[in-house]
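ok so for the tutorial part 2 we go from a plain amino acid sequence to predicted structure tokens. step 1 is just haveing the sequence, like this:
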Amino acid sequence: MISHVFVGVTDFDRAFRFYSAVMEDLRLELKFCERDRPWAGWTAASAPRPLFLIGRPYDGNPAHCGNGQMIALLAPDRGAVANAHASALTTGGSCEGAPGLRPQYHSHYYGAYFRDPDGNKICVCCHDPVSA
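step 2 — the prediction. this is what the tokens look like for a chain of 132 residues:
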């Protein structure tokens, strides 16, 4: 359903460090990084899309986040949710909700919420029950 998501950033190097750490925890691979443009994109190893992209806004104006907008990234397991949240906080992000079950969504929903250094709200979540 989704081809790609683009998140505008004000400081590409800072954002690249932040998202590289989070994407590593989610086991997503860097597909490209063009610092002269600047932009970068990640995807799952098993598919060419969807892409998660960061970069300077196309119109050249400063990036800013939208009220009520959030991007949710799928984690392979609950440990990856916790690790991605921790990486986000250690690379300049701020907490919007610690890792944990959110039964108001469904009985196995395990998620965490944070903002990137530019204020964009990101969720990482796993929908699977704990495996034995």
